[in-house]
Amino acid sequence: MTAAAKHLTPVTLELGGKNPCYVSDTCNVANVARRVVWGRFFNAGQTCIAPDYVLCTVEMQDKLMPALREAITEFFGPNPRESPDFGRIVSDKQFQRIRALLGSGRVAIGGQTDEAERYIAPTVLADVLPSDPAMQEEIFGPILPIVVIANMDEAIEFINARPQPLVVYAFSCDSKVVNQVLEQTSSGGFCGNDTLMHVTLTSLSFGGIGNSGLGKYHGKFTFDTFSHHRGCLHRNMGLETLNTLRYPPYTQQKLGLLTTTFEVKRRGTCTLL
């Protein structure tokens, strides 16, 4: 941005952030688990749009846990370390950073690591507190914290008390619940009852807001972002008489004509010059 500002060059930035995933008490638990596990552990969690943490009631946490474990086993087998579909952490530095987050809450699923391979198992942390290290930064790794809230209103309040994320996820069989989360939060994007899939649609813009970025792209939005929209007017050389009202000297007669021309005649219509 510094280099762009020096030359007055516009920029679009996608910066990521901690993407919340609210799971209501009225949902298909098995489907939620599979979609969240896929979104969180895709590329070993190293995507900017991965659900960063789950917000749900303690009752839903108890229901989700076995469903999450089953989905992880379905996708990556009984030992994810041997799965050809589960990745490794990109660097030693990032491995050390992510491994340190395992001390948050309690490890309910996974938690195994291998520094030599930069392997961190698909991990779910239960009973995570907002003050825990895993909630202080974007995880960008295969760790999914679950933060217990009392209800949807508290979940919305929790989301709005933090920087605007790149995406908000909401799961519920009640579309009114999903829409309420959409309407009462602010984020770069939104996805209801799924994860990641909104970025596959070129008909939807993709970008952040606030701390998660600025600008947008995807499909024609990319063309528009990197194009200058130039306003143009090309008149003919005739009808000069119509221009006399705008030329000096300005008189009360000209003002009266202009006022009459632009006066609203009836609701919803007007007369244009």
Compile the SSE list and pairings.
Elements: H1 2-6, E1 13-14, E2 20-23, H2 29-41, E3 53-56, H3 58-76, H4 92-100, E4 106-109, E5 113-114, E6 119-120, E7 123-126, E8 143-148, H5 152-160, E9 167-171, H6 175-184, E10 189-192, E11 213-214, H7 220-225, H8 252-262
Parallel strand pairs: 2-3, 2-9, 3-8, 7-8, 9-10
Antiparallel strand pairs: 1-11, 4-7, 5-6
Report on the structure:
The chain is of the alpha/beta class. It has eight helices and eleven strands. It has a seven-stranded mixed β-sheet with strand order 4-7-8-3-2-9-10, sandwiched between helices. Strands 1-11 form a two-stranded antiparallel ribbon. Helix 6 links the parallel strand 9 and strand 10. Helix 2 crosses helix 3. The chain is elongated. The model has no long low-confidence stretch (mean pLDDT 93).
